[in-house]
Amino acid sequence: MPRETMAAKRERALEVARRMNEHYPAAECALVYGGDPFRLTIAVLLSAQTTDKGVNKVTPRLWERYPTPADLASADVRDVEDIIRTIGFYHTKAANVIKCAQMVVADYGGEIPRDIDELQKLPGVGRKTANVVLNEAFGIVEGIAVDTHVFRIAHRLKFAGPSADTPAKTETALLKLYPRAWWGPINHQWVLFGRETCIARNPKCGECFLCDLCPSCGKA
DNA sequence: ATCCCGAGGG
DNA sequence: CCCTCTGGAT
Is A128 a catalytic residue? Predict the structure, then answer.
């Protein structure tokens, strides 16, 4: 196979993006947070390593029992643990959720900061979670949140080469490949795609809508 | 039974 | 780089 030119790669990348749009039209956040940035932050934090479904099962009771950041800031850890017990990492997350509420109240006047560095000062909020919150709650697109889904997909599509062996290098490759207008949709859609089709092991190439565009397609 | 794979800490 | 925290998916 001849080496793909940059122009050809860019065209392939844009076709990938178009098909993602068709497949995940106007992707809305699956988490239940009532449009409240604080609740969104907590919900995204809780959703790490678990399903949105599992998170949506516990957050309504959390909002009911602790309606405001101030309420959550003074919560008993054991009460919060009881509420979120059915999701992964609940012990760590219960402590983080309360600390987040305390910091939001004490340092940010009860409002989630609209700044990626400030967001990442909240316990349990890393770069990925911060990007999701900025994008979802405020429509701010700082970059592309490279979690393991995006990392895996970028490498399978050969949009990131073997030397792009870190999330940061992979993000750089994607930012160069895609115009800024696509960054937000990528943040949204690739995670869905990575969860249901381009899964880590035994990817479902047989039912994949990108197979003809993918150098790694197994056509299984 | 093993892998998943975000954040934080060593 | 290494490891831990957990329920869920496979």
Answer: yes
Q: What are phi and psi of A79, to 5 degrees?
A: -65, -45
Q: Which protein residue lies nearest to nucleotide C10, measured between its Cα and the C1' atom?
A: A201
Question: What's the CA–C1' distance between A31 and C8, in Å?
Answer: 18
Q: Can you give the pLDDT at residue A27?
A: 66
CATH classification code of A37-129: 1.10.340.30
Q: Which CATH class is domain A6-27+144-213?
A: mainly alpha
pLDDT at A220: 59
Active-site annotation holds for A107 = no
The runs of H, that is alpha helices, within A74-216 are 77-84, 90-107, 116-119, 127-138, 148-156, 167-177, 183-196
Q: How far is the CA of A198 from the C1' of C10 (A)?
A: 15
A213: nearest Cα among A22, A18, A27, A2: A18
